[in-house]
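Action item from last week, closing it out:
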Amino acid sequence: MKLKYKRVLLKISGEMFSGGDEFGIDFDAAKEVAKEINTIYKEGVEVAVVVGGGNIFRGRNVRDKEIDKATADYMGMISTMLNALAFQGVLEQEEKISTRVLSAITMLEVAEPYIRRRGIRHLEKGRLVILSAGSGNPYFTTDTAAVLRALELHADIILKMTKVDGVYSADPMKDKNAKKYDKISFKEALVKDLEVMDPTAFTLCMKNNLPIKIFKFEKGNLKKVVEGAEIGTLVS
């Protein structure tokens, strides 16, 4: 297997763990994601994963009059830990992958605190690193956390698995004339206001020239991406 990318940061939304449900963790869905990751892990790719928590709690859906925005965001960060621990269990028991959960919020009983050098060392030792609790700061999304961690851990690329097969000029579910982009520059995506990532995360990628690959979660696609296949959309 010829690898185009040796170290990757994989961004997984909470919805990937919910299966067909609106809420909670579907372990069968988590197993499917774990199987896909193992196709590249066993080939020697160093993998760091940033997990979302939208299947459990979304801070942005809470109104300010109900709860303070910062508190809501912290609740969202804690929900990512539930996904991280569940996914760790699936990866280790089903796929026999050695993992470490690193948290941006201190939870010493269940996870190691996020320390950049520690994360790099785990990757060098062949452990899959699951990064939880976002960036540890309110007002920032897990997209932004993914970019921060990718830069800190010297990842070659950010891989974002979604339900669509790339970036389109419009919502392909609503506009049959929507055009899919195979490759697009950061500036062009910005000018066209394409929803690649949230603006903060996207700007950080652009300023640091960190490429993003958006592709559909389907069997075999992750392996194809790290081999350099032209599927999905490459933003660089």
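Closing note: The chain has a mean pLDDT of 92.
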